[in-house]
Amino acid sequence: HCGHVLVLFTAFWFYASFSHGSGFRHSTILDPHGKYHLKWRFDRGTITFEIEVETTGYVGFGLSPNGAMALSDIVIGGVTDGRPYLQDYFADAKRKVHRDVQQNYRLEYGRENNTHTVLAFSRDLLTCDTNDKDITVRGVIWAYHSDDVGPSGPMYHGVNRGRKSMRLLDPGSKVNITSGTDFFNLQNINVPVPYKDTTYWCQIFQIQEVQQKHHIIRIEPLIQRGHENLVHHILLYQCDSNLNESELGASHECYHPNMPDSFLTCETIVFAWAIGGEGFTYPPHVGLSIGTAIDPVYVLMEVHYDNPALQQGVVDSSGLRLFYTPELRQYDAGVIETGVWVSLYHMLPPGMQEYVSEGHCTRECLQESLGQEMPNGVRVFAVLMHAHLAGRAIRTRHFREQEELQPLSHDEEFDFNFQEFQLLKEERLLLPGDHLITECKYTTKGRQNMTWGGLTTRDEMCLSYLLYYPRVNLARCESLPEITGQLKFIGVKEIQAPVTTWPFMIKSPKKYSNLSFTEAMDKYRWSKKRGKSFNEMVLQLPMNVRCSKWGQDEWSIQGTLVSPPEMKSEVKPPSVVCRSASEPHSGVVFLFTLCLTYSVVQACLSL
Hints:
The chain has a 7-stranded mixed sheet, with helices on one face. It is globular and about 80 Å long. A hairpin with a 5-residue loop joins strand 6 and strand 7 (97-99). Helices cover 11% and strands 37% of the residues. It is mainly beta. It holds the Pfam family Cu2_monoox_C. One of its GO terms (molecular function) is copper ion binding. InterPro entries: Cu2_ascorb_mOase-like_C (IPR014784), Cu2_ascorb_mOase_N (IPR000323), Cu2_ascorb_mOase_N_sf (IPR036939), Cu2_monoox_C (IPR024548), DBH-like (IPR000945), DOH_DOMON (IPR045266), DOMON_domain (IPR005018), PHM/PNGase_F_dom_sf (IPR008977). Residues 34-145 form the DOMON domain.
């Protein structure tokens, strides 16, 4: 009996140590085996973490701009002889770990039993320490060891390490849905996850049939228990409403040569979730309409499985849960796809440290479409920015009468494996005659051939999806640089006519004769200097306008050529003056300074 009492007391003591962490709104599991648990919460000035790890040695946690050890911001701690310890470190470009002179992480508490270590620590959102990383970086790295930190520093963690992409300051929120609200699931059933690092799995579903118009008001992940670390992101695309019902249930690896042709009809993203997110709730005055003739009928769900441990025999049944109601909101939500028209005419030379593409949602398209459908404009309330593996940064720029407004959205550390709609802090009015530019920065360093605009992850895109209301008949507002100027750059003089093949064939000069234009572009001897000149030239080329309605219909401006508009200088983020770590400052001054930085604007939730 005494033994039982001792066990219960020990368990109660360890549980009580966890209770210090009450109030943590967000949590996730970082490793594939469920040994490393992370909780966090934040306010307008501070973020607090609690980590629970299956080890009695040291634990490490860090922030990295790209998920790598190099140039990361690290905290390492543990419990020795009943006393918790914590140190602030950073890694240099060669991955060597150094103790940070400015110790900005504060130990809150720590406990340890025979199997687990719990540490809680906090940090200011803005530290003004060059060795600290911005809390908005999405590369979270972790490690642990069976031994504590010794006099010579932490021992190498070996295989007990990893990384995850997460949005710490804006992970979404759990919203209480009224009890009894109807829902339907879009769910994979026993998908065998391949024995490889990364898999994209697609399946077509039919939206819930309803007898009258309803509004979808929330979408949240439905992740199979134990697979929280396996399912990395889920995208939902609207498909052609005229699909044959025999296509329903068709599932296959996405972007695969043998995938069903019907997958290609599913282009517009209507929802996106990524690990760390807790779902998306539409604003209380807006809903996603289902049940009418113009609403989505079929959708394609894309699930990204992240399996770096190469687990075998894994079968997954994850998906999404969509809550819907007959109690209609004031407005129907719509989605506009803006940016670069997906085409082979969007091309990136190889070996470029930085290459910039711009996709224009032109004033001509918005003038015609909004001018006829909604002269008072529409209100954008969320944005998803989308590129593929070469993408490094994206901005959605907004112009009115040639004056640049604040960006609709921006991401200076774009991560292909972490894409989801982000609610704007304030809705943005989009008027007839406004102009949007989706600006994408890429790196093609290490690639030997051209990178083409296309659907596969090795191809590229440059898109911004705008969630807005009220819904109008505008599906895509995009541009594409005309091809003639791009071909002239490499010396093409004439193409074969009539055009009977795609990609079309080159006639002269002789060195390109009987090559497709894509082969000619690859044959050209690219250098960094030539690539930079090509980039500068492309940004000045006339653009083909894409201005399409739902389905196959188009606005009359579609297909016309327009020149890139001359815009006044871009908006620059305000500079921030940092105080020294020892200099006191008032909370008001600190918060004001914090709010001036774009990168931590999420922290200013209610000022």
